[in-house]
Amino acid sequence: MIPLRLWIRMICTLLILSLISGCWSSREIEDLSLYVGLGIDVGQETKFEKTIAAQGGGYPKEENVTATVQIAPGKSSSQQSEQGGSPSSGKSSYSNEQLTGDSLLQIFRQFALRRDRPLIGHHLKVIVISKDIAKKYGLQQLLDFVLRDNDIRPNCLVLISHHRALDVLTSRDPSRIPAFYLTGITNNSYISNKIMEPVSLAKLDAEMQSGSSFLLQNVLNADGEDKFSGGSIFKAKTTKFIGELSQTDLEALSWIKPKERGGVIKTYSKEGFTVLYEIKKKTTKIIPKVVRGDISFHVKAESEGWLMEDWRAPEKEEKGAYLKELEKDFAKIVDQQIDQMLYKLQHTYKADVAGFRDSIRIHYPKTWKKVKDNWDEVFATVPITYEIKTSIINPGSSTE
Length: 400
Known about the structure:
Blueprint: H1 4-19, E1 33-42, H2 47-54, E2 65-71, H3 77-82, E3 95-101, H4 104-110, E4 119-120, E5 126-130, H5 131-136, H6 139-142, H7 144-148, E6 157-161, H8 165-168, H9 178-185, H10 201-210, E7 214-222, E8 225-234, E9 241-245, H11 247-254, E10 264-268, E11 274-291, E12 294-310, H12 321-348, H13 356-363, H14 365-371, H15 375-379, E13 384-394
Parallel strand pairs: 1-4, 1-5, 5-6, 6-7, 12-13
Antiparallel strand pairs: 1-2, 2-3, 7-8, 8-9, 10-11, 11-12
Helix pairs in contact: 11-12, 13-14
């Protein structure tokens, strides 16, 4: 007869083995194609697609959209070139593959006909949409499949390319994966107010569902190098691209948005020398006011920063009246930038991407109910005043 103690040991052993046996439905990562970047361009068939179609390998579709998937790890340059990708010298850390059609879902399923490993979007880092296709179709249309797909994480970054999304997702450095590089640039927003706070897929969906106009970060490309520059404006009702803000406009917008720090202000002394102020801390308050149905806003923004560069002759002291004069000069520069930016938003594009709508919605909910359906048109006529204060709390280190 087997002792009770031995029975207990056998049962415990079986239970432990069942826990460490692994997941029955698991798939090895080597057997998957993880795409980390997605580019959406105006439809333009690749040479590979045209050759296949000529052999009878096509299917009924319109050439509306070209989707680029960036897969990591990549292939050799010859393999990429054969399959309609973007070749680079030698072995690449990624591969770009393209297909054209009128449905993103159908395009993704077509990849199964040319790859031995299925596409998996669990690790998608960035979606790049070209400005040209964003003029033709609203983002609500272009991203409908992406927003419904449970495979794609809602925290992936959304960017707008000035030209083709494929160019932004292509690097001359084979060791660099553009999707990771682009997400890394957003981490620099704490030192530059020319970089917007990252807009994720989830945040973009919330903006579109709320019926508000919104802004997305622009990315430019030249000679295989990417650069963030300005932002693209999308209209509330259509979710289509309607215009752009420059780098300087984004600097001005940061004084209205609740961004705590980051950025520099440049002015010139009376002698014509360059002087730079770096923002270390900033507070912004938007004060809405409604009088007999008339809406107005007043923006109060204060910053503390360091005098980080002064090209004047070194024997001149940097204190007292001179610093006070510089503070006024820096505030004046910001005033000019804000004035230029607000003119574009209110008169050129008639789109509130600065967040004034949230202020009136919170403080005057009854008024908001009356104007929310045509807020952009109301915003275009609303008086906006602003008060900027800059304080130099540290003149910087001295070499004397």
